[in-house]
Design a protein that fits this description.
single chain, 588 residues, alpha/beta, Protocatechuate 4,5-dioxygenase, Chain B, Purple Acid Phosphatase, chain A, domain 2, 2 domains, nine-stranded mixed beta sheet, eight-stranded mixed beta sheet, 20 helices, 28 strands, elongated, Metallo-depent_PP-like
C-alpha cells in the first residue's frame, strides 16, 4: 500500500510538470514516444537539461524500499538501467547501490529512438543542467570517441529521453564525476559496437569509468509475454551471448552489445538487481501493452564458475517440464539467487540432444534423448557449458552424437568430451573468461577402459595454452557414497599433469572432497536434475563454485535437495549436517 501511494505521488509530480501526462499515460498505454521540453531552445550558449527538472520528483523515487546487493568495496564497471520513468524507483535503487563508489566519469549509452541525425554514434559536447547542479561533459572521452567516428549533434541529443531522464540520477550519485552520453542507431553492428567498447576500455585504463546502458526491454506485449522475453534477454546478458544479443527484445541491442564487450574486457560478471514491467508497476497486470525493465551491475572480479552434477531431461523429467516447465524445477533456486554472479555454469549432460528429442538405434535399457528447446531453456538460468563424456552420450548412436554437437553449437553452448572411454580431440575445449582462458576436459570410464596416458597428455598439452584446467570425469560406482582407489589415483595423476580442479559425477550420490597439492577434487556431485526419486541420497546433490585468481583456486560447497522434482538449497542445521557427512566421506 505504501509503495502504491508513493507511486501515486510520482504520478502527480510528473503530471504537475506537464510531461504530457507521462505516468498518467502509462496507466492507459504502454509508453509515451515523446516527452522532452519543447520550450528549451538549443543554441551554442545553452546547456542540455535533465527532464523532469524538479528535484522533488527524484527524491520521491528514492523513498521506495530498495534492494542492497552489498557492492561496497567491489569494482562495478558497468550497469543496465531503464529510461522509462514509470520505473524511476528502480533507477533510484540502482544508483543507491552505487553510492560512495569511486567514479571519475560516467558514459551513458542508449538508443537513438528516432534515428535522428547524421551519425550512427551521436554524442554531446554540452554540459547538463540537473536539479542537483551542472553535470560537466568529459572532454577527454569526447575526443577519444570522436576518433572512432562519434559526432556531437546537440539538437538530436537535446530530444533523447534515454539520456535526459538519467542525468539527474547520475549527478546526485556522483557529484564530482564528468559525463558523456552516446546514443546508437539500430544499424550499429557488432564490429562498430566492439570498436566503441574497445575505445572505452582503452580510456578506462587511466580513468575510473562507469559505463551504463539506458535501455528498456520488451515493448507492446502482455505482462506474461514480456516476462518470457526478459528471461531470454537476461540469459543472453548473463552468459555474454554475443550471437544472441541482437535478437533480444530491447530498444537498443547495440548498446547492450557494447556494454557486454566492455564488461568482458574488464573481466566483469553480471549481477541482476531487478526485473519487472509497466503493467506490474502500475498495478494493472492485464494491460495488453507493456514495457519491461531490467537493472543490474557488471562487477569486476576473479573468474568464478559453478558446477553441478548429472542433468537428465528425459523420462519423468520430460513429463514434469512439459507440465510445469523449468521454472517449477528452478523456482526456489532463482529466489535464492543460486545462479547469479558466475562467468560459467556447467553440468554433466546425461544424454543426447537430438532433433526433436528423437530416439534412434540402438535401443538401450536406459536410453536418454533431450529436445533442443528444453536444453536451450537452461540458458535462461545461466548454463553455458556441458560435459558430454559419459555412458549416455552415445545412447542414440553416431547420429545422436553428431546432432548433439550441432544442436549445442547452434544454441551457443560450450562443451567437451567424447563417448565413454574415448580420449581424442573432442575431449577438450577452451573458454575465454575476461582476459583469461579456461581449459575444460571431459573424460568417461564407466565400464570402459580409459587410456590414462592419453588423458594425461590432453591435460598437459592444454595446460600450456590456458590459465586453468578443469577436468570433468564420469567415473565410480553407482550409488556408492565412497571413493575408490582407481578414482583417487586418476585424480592425482591428472593434477600432477596440470589439472587445477577435478569435478566428478556418475554415482548419482554425493561422494567426498579432497584437496591434493592445493587443487580440489570433487569425486561426485550427485544428481542435479534426475528422476531417481527412490532414495533420499539420489535426491540430494552438491553444487561447487570455483573462484580462480593468481593465488590459486578457492571453492565453496552448496548442498541442495529435490522434492517432487523441485530443487532448493539446504540451509541452517540441515545444511551443516549434510556438509558434516561429506567431510566424513572425505576422510575415509
Amino acid at each position: 500500500m505504501i509503495r502504491n501511494q508513493k507511486r501515486a505521488l510520482i504520478v502527480t509530480a510528473v503530471a504537475g510538470l506537464s510531461l504530457i501526462g507521462l505516468f498518467a499515460v502509462f496507466f492507459v498505454v504502454a509508453e509515451p514516444e515523446l516527452f522532452w521540453p519543447e520550450d528549451v531552445e538549443v543554441t551554442e550558449a545553452t546547456l542540455h537539461a535533465a527532464y523532469p527538472a524538479d528535484k522533488a520528483f527524484f527524491e520521491t523515487a528514492y523513498e521506495f524500499e530498495g534492494k542492497n546487493l552489498g557492492l561496497s568495496g567491489q569494482r562495478v564497471v558497468a550497469g543496465i538501467i531503464p529510461h522509462h520513468l514509470l520505473a524511476a524507483d528502480l533507477i533510484a535503487d540502482f544508483f543507491r547501490n552505487l553510492e560512495g563508489a569511486d567514479v571519475d566519469a560516467v558514459v551513458l549509452l542508449g538508443p537513438n529512438h528516432f534515428s535522428a541525425g547524421q551519425s550512427d554514434l551521436i554524442t554531446s559536447a554540452y554540459d547538463w543542467q540537473t536539479p542537483y547542479g551542472v553535470l560537466s561533459h568529459d572532454a577527454e572521452l569526447l575526443t577519444g570517441l570522436q576518433g572512432i567516428g562519434a559526432v556531437a549533434e546537440e539538437a538530436v541529443m537535446h530530444g533523447e529521453h534515454a539520456i535526459t531522464s538519467e542525468v539527474a540520477f547520475i549527478k546526485r550519485t556522483f557529484p564530482r564525476a564528468t559525463f558523456l552520453p552516446v546514443i546508437l542507431k539500430p544499424g550499429v553492428d557488432e564490429q562498430a559496437a566492439t570498436k566503441l567498447a574497445e575505445a572505452l576500455f582503452k580510456i578506462s585504463q587511466n580513468k575510473k569509468i562507469l559505463v551504463l546502458a539506458s535501455v528498456d526491454f520488451s515493448h507492446y506485449k502482455t505482462s506474461l509475454e514480456a516476462q518470457r522475453d526478459d528471461e531470454r534477454s537476461i540469459a543472453a546478458i548473463r552468459s555474454f551471448d554475443f550471437r544472441g544479443v541482437y535478437r533480444i527484445e530491447a530498444d537498443s541491442p547495440p548498446s547492450i552489445y557494447t556494454l557486454l564487450k566492455f564488461s568482458q574486457l574488464n573481466r566483469a560478471r553480471f549481477s541482476l538487481l531487478a526485473n519487472t514491467n509497466s503493467a506490474l508497476l502500475a498495478g494493472k497486470p492485464d494491460l495488453l501493452s507493456t514495457t519491461s525493465y531490467v537493472t543490474g551491475f557488471f562487477v569486476q572480479g576473479n573468474a568464478k564458475l559453478l558446477f553441478v552434477g548429472d542433468v537428465m531431461l528425459d523420462r519423468n523429467v520430460k513429463t514434469l517440464v512439459d507440465g510445469k516447465g523449468l521454472a517449477y524445477i528452478f523456482g526456489d533456486l532463482v529466489k535464492q539467487r543460486f545462479f547469479d554472479g558466475y562467468d560459467l555454469v556447467g553440468a554433466n549432460l546425461e544424454g543426447a540432444v537430438t532433433n526433436g528429442g528423437e530416439h534412434y538405434q540402438p535401443v538401450k535399457e536406459f536410453d536418454f534423448a533431450f529436445r533442443p528447446e528444453t536444453v536451450a531453456d537452461l540458458k535462461g538460468y545461466g548454463f553455458t557449458f556441458f560435459n558430454l563424456a559419459n555412458n549416455h552420450f552415445d545412447d542414440q548412436g553416431t547420429r545422436g552424437m553428431e546432432e548433439t554437437r550441432k544442436n549445442l553449437r547452434d544454441l551457443g553452448f560450450d562443451f567437451s568430451g567424447c563417448q565413454n572411454g574415448v580420449v581424442a580431440d573432442c575431449s577438450a575445449t577452451t573458454v575465454a573468461i575476461g582476459g583469461k582462458k579456461v581449459g575444460l576436459v571431459g573424460l568417461s570410464l564407466v565400464g570402459a577402459k580409459l587410456d590414462v596416458k592419453k588423458a594425461e597428455a590432453v591435460v598437459s598439452a592444454l595446460k600450456g595454452s590456458v590459465d586453468w584446467v578443469i577436468v570433468s570425469i564420469h567415473w565410480g560406482e553407482e550409488y556408492d557414497q565412497y571413493v575408490n582407489t582407481a578414482q583417487q589415483n586418476l585424480a592425482h595423476a591428472l593434477i600432477d599433469r596440470g589439472a587445477d580442479a577435478i569435478v566428478g559425477h556418475h554415482p548419482h550420490v554425493v561422494q567426498g572432497v579432497e584437496v591434493y597439492k592445493n587443487k580440489p577434487i570433487f569425486y561426485s556431485l550427485g544428481n542435479f536434475i534426475f528422476d531417481q526419486y527412490f532414495s533420499v541420497e539420489t535426491q540430494q546433490g552438491l553444487a561447487v563454485s570455483l573462484e580462480f585468481s593468481d593465488d590459486g583456486v578457492a571453492y565453496a560447497l552448496q548442498p541442495f535437495k529435490a522434492a517432487a522434482g523441485r530443487i532448493t538449497l539446504l540451509a541452517g542445521q540441515e545444511k551443516q549436517d549434510f556438509l558434516d557427512e561429506v567431510m566424513k566421506k572425505s576422510s575415509q
